[in-house]
Amino acid sequence: STQPPPSQNGKGVAATATVPNGPATTPASQNAWSPSSWKTKPIAQAVMYENREAVQRSLTKLQRLPPIVTPTEIVKLKNSLRDVALGKAFLLQGGDCAELFDYCEENAIDSKIKLLLQMSLVLIWGVNKPVVRIARMAGQFAKPRSSPTEVVNGKTVPSFRGDILNGYQPDERDIDPARLVSAYFHSATTLNYVRAQLASGIADLHKPLDWELGHVRDPELQSKYQRIVASITDSLRFMRTVGADTAGQLQTVDLYTSHEGLLLEYEQSLTRRLRHPSNYRAAPSQEAGDDGKGWYNTSAHFLWIGDRTRQLDGAHVEYFRGLENPIGIKVGPSMDGDELVRLLDIVNPKREVGKVTLITRYGEKKVEGMLSAHVEAVKSSGHVVVWQCDPMHGNTITTALGIKTRYFASILSEVSSALRIHQEHGSFLGGVHLELTGDAVTECVGGSEGLVEEDLSLNYTTFCDPRLNEKQALELAFLVAGHYRG
Ligand code: PEP
Ligand code: MN
């Protein structure tokens, strides 16, 4: 079907739209999949485009454009996530909540690459395993919203839904289908610069990194962090001295891209039937006689389903179940254990190890009551997943002055609880999922700089959720690493 989703309220975010006559009650796994089969399902966060012709022009253009990422890279990440699921590697994923087209800029990209690199070195030191790095970048342009409208400067306007649909400025809130194509080019340009910088040595571990620990107020903490940095620096120097880098492996690192797969028209147009690469691992139950090809989403290496769009019979789950890519599922406090297992059965019927990353985001107070049951449910189902903790989304609060923020202590508390609960259940935390920026913003409270609520107005620049700044993010990496080192 090429029918557009039906109109709900003419604008903004629909709760769940049901297509009349759609087989919405048939379990997803019993129907044939195609890149457009999601259109037969009810869709949450539907977009009500007014100009369907303009949308079709954009989608036709997108379908012609080349892949942004390739199956070889996607499968390489999938194989690495298998290692994470088996406890042989650790996953670091981070970036902005809402990436703006304006972040497609030299300094913003450089600072994010460097921050993710530094955090990963600290984690390698602490966890004593290779670290798989995935940026929420080069395509994180679509945002689910809880309300179709919001009030800006006393005026009610359509909600900002991410640069792929409308603009943040109140006079840019109408949905503009040309932005779909613009999102592609901003993704491609960002990733092109990331690739060029990695190839040119931005992540060359032979080069000294500036760790800037001067902000850490507590002298004991500061010397603790200095010791970790000295240990990392010494190890790298030693490896160079003994010539341990004959393959040039220390000259660059892998950095994968990811975003929420929210806007299915966009994702569909970049979903291509492509030959499996040579690093492809056939699933145990792979049918003989298939054509050696699969459906790859070539807009990013990794995509995830948001907590608001993970309905078992919904359009997003339907779309995701046909992809070869490794995928994530956000798991919030409203998820039931049986539901979680049914979801895994739908999106990963072949039970590929590490195909699915469960990104748990309960909140520091709810993690205790929820995570154990989910770990046990998944364990008894036989699925082997990557367990990743997103300590951001369950810990968002609004200050007395009405500013959306997160306390560093709450974020750390949810990660610490997750680490412990997994251990208590014979499971292990595979990674962390963070909202962060390489810039010196003041959006989250706490950390060793000692930011307080009154400081939030100093440099609060997020267009969606509050992010850890570069110091807070690095500090979180030190603390997680410290958990393993004791
Ligand atoms: C997000 O990651 O920015 C997000 C919207 O998360 P969730 O789906 O977990 O609410
Ligand atoms: Mn967010």
Count of beta strands: 16
Spell the H/E element sequence: EEHHEHEEEHHEHEEEHEHEHEEEHEH
Specify the overall morphology.
globular
- Helicity, as a percent range: 25-40%
Major beta sheet, strand line-up? 3-4-7-10-11-12-13-16
Cα end-to-end separation: 56 Å
Number of helices: 11
Unreliably modeled segments? 1-26
State mean pLDDT (0 to 100 scale): 92
Bound molecule kinds, no repeats: phosphoenolpyruvate, manganese (II) ion
Radius of gyration: 22 Å
Largest sheet: 8 strands, parallel, barrel
Indicate the proportion of strand residues: 5-15%
Structural class assignment = alpha/beta
Protein described:
The protein has helices spanning 52-64, 71-85, 106-127, 178-199, 219-241, 264-269, 315-320, 337-347, 367-381, 408-424, 470-485, and strands at residues 16-17, 43-44, 90-95, 131-136, 149-152, 155-158, 256-260, 271-275, 293-297, 302-305, 327-331, 356-360, 386-389, 397-398, 404-405, 431-435. With 486 residues, the chain is α/β, with parallel strands linked by helices. The strands form five sheets. The protein has an eight-stranded parallel β-barrel with strand order 3-4-7-10-11-12-13-16, surrounded by four helices. It has a two-stranded antiparallel ribbon with strand order 1-2. Strands 5-6 form a two-stranded antiparallel ribbon. It starts with 15 loop residues before the first strand and ends with a helix. The model is unreliable at 1-26 (pLDDT under 50). The structure holds phosphoenolpyruvate (PEP) and manganese (II) ion. The site of phosphoenolpyruvate has 9 residues, from loops.
